[in-house]
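Input record (one chain):
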Amino acid sequence: MVWPTVINSNIILIAHSASVYFFKFAKKTSMYKVTTLLIAFFVQLVYTPLFGWGQIGHRAVGQIAEWHLSKKATKNISQVLGPLSLAMVSTWMDEIRSDDAYDYTNTWHWVTIPDNTSYNADIQEEAGDAFGMTQKIIAALKTDTLSQQEEKEYLMMLVHLVGDLHQPLHVGNGEDRGGNDVKVEWMGEPSNLHRVWDSDMIDGKQLSYTELAQHLNRRATERLVQQWQSSSPEQWLAEAMELRPQVYDVPDNKRLGYQYSYQNYATVEHQLLVAGVRLAGILNEIYG
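The corresponding structure, as predicted from the sequence alone:
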């Protein structure tokens, strides 16, 4: 399963800049070469896949987690990651999609649970799924038998996967590829429901990941932190599934914008905050 992106206003701006370059280039070379380059460029542009919350969302989760680490966990994690922060490694699993050596992780970004059912390993992708691999990675990090590189990669994967499991459409119903097949307009531009939850609503606030993380973390009281960290990963899945009626409540004309954001962005914020706090709880258990 490959979840495609759609062309948005940023891509259009990039395409315009590229077209200016190519037309200048056309004066110096054959039109055959120019056409070939243009086709290659736009194919790469349109079919580059996106996963997870998008960079801002994932980094906000990582930053929130850092603020809730114990001193011991902070020290031990720094020995694994070196100068890298949890925020910056949170997108590594998306970045390695350009490396064939990591193709085995392509299906780890989501889990499929049809309505009115629970997690069933037998119906998941053969190479693994977000929930199953999260469990395996946590268990592996607790064994203290990994090489230095393996531990670093597993830790970076864990930061990403915990975020993914809190994006409601990464706990898919098995019918529409996590909302990717639900084509919509977002603020007048082509999009899909998955992308709206991944990044469209978040990007619309025009906040940096640190601004977003600071804004969210103000709500993390001691009582809530304890409550969220005491829940099991199975509960995370149940929470995501409970959000489906809300997520899929889109108008018949499929035009989404300010009203949909007004009705759903608070849920986006909640899921990001809870993901960061829960990630910290797991890391404190492993490294604290």
